[in-house]
Amino acid sequence: MQMITYIYQLLWGDLFTVPLPNGQTAGISLLVLLLIPAGIFFTVRTRFLPVRLFPEMLRVTVKKRRESEHHAISGLQALIVSTATRVGMGNLVGVVAAISAGGAGAVFWMWLTALLGSSTAFVEATLAQLHKEKDPLYGGYRGGPAYYIHHFVKERRDAKSRRSIIAVLFAVSGLICWCGISQVISNSVSSSFYNAFRIPPIYSTVVLVILSAVIVLRKNATVKVLDVLVPIMAGCYFLITLIIIAKNIPYLPAVFRQIFAEAFGLRQAVAGGFGAVLMNGVKRGLFSNEAGSGSAPCAAAAADADHPASAGLLQAFGVFIDTIVICSCTAMIMLLAPADLLTGLSGMDLLQTAMAHHLGRFGTIFIAATLWLFSFSTFIGILFYARSNVAYLFGDNWLSQTLYKVLALIMLFIGGLAAYTFVWDLGDIGIGLMTVFNMLILIPQSKEALTALKDYEKNRKQ
Q1: DSSP SS3 for 340
Q2: pLDDT value at position 272?
Q3: Strand partners, 217
Q4: How far is 176 from 428, CA to CA, in rounded Å?
Q5: pTM
Q6: How far apart are CA 238 and CA 58, in angstroms?
Q7: N or C, which end of the chain has less CB nearby within 10 Å?
């Protein structure tokens, strides 16, 4: 436990503090130190891709799917799978935590982090496409950071080994992370259903595990289910938010003034001042959109894209959907509710209270159902990610694939009944280590993705 705590603090805790005006400080964690400068670097190198090529992202998203070989998923389906995992508890509980600790200004820094993260997401997804392999078990393609890291190390060292140490460490970290997330998912679901309906955790957990098992233990059911589930759940959440905004339209200008005023410390919502506002927005933004962690490239690699850069543009758009759209929905739900009503509340209690204010009893039920859908789709999505990592570590066999799925289902069951276990910290450690190992190679290997972008733009002009 002490070792886990130490590693957690090394990754997520403050490595050092930066002095700010008026005697304030901002703590800088290792992950912020890695991801923010890298995001700025990639944004500059791609010539501000998130803004410059946003219309192209929309065009690629709605582009008609071309004919592909059996079991190969389209670029849009890869976007749906990655959105299923990005749009999860971070968009609900994470945004609540960011605003609770850093005030409304944290929302602005989440937006800015998403713009930088879009460039990072483009680079890692494009690399995943460039280094994908045929998948003999599931059909189509597979890949991700473990594969492009392996190829990078092999080319530099001219090694003939079947494994690369950094790639192995990434794959192991991913499997640890996704087991930990499985517990957090079921615990959040059981808690929200108990708050909304007073359903004992054992019942909601058993239903969640059974439904998940029916899908993930079938060979190719994952993408089919997410194709239907993700657009419905994200669309409904967005629609409900628009209804809430329409009901509170006179207060909307004041909310935006509050966001921008507190973002730069002009008005302080918390004792921590500007440092707390900045770092809570940045950290939650990074955690929510997952850009740089190496998760989404596992889906991007599976796509049968007509050009590697088009898969990268789709994943960059996924960051926009996650943070600019869905996280902003949660922020608006909270900030349009009376502040005195939410005083002293935190987590799902705070969000459900805000929704109850806007929509009555239906609001509480809607949040519980939304969290269930977000969490359910996240679990299915992370097991799709795990396929390529399990194959890299243990080879192409159904035994290892099935054993990992069973392990994740066990963790899903335990998490729904346990108030807290150290495996949750392992989930945070896992995604932190994934990010470290991924970023070690992503920056030096990014030239390949930038070359692919130039080729894509050249072809589009022609």
Answers
A1: helix
A2: 47
A3: none
A4: 9
A5: 0.88
A6: 18
A7: C
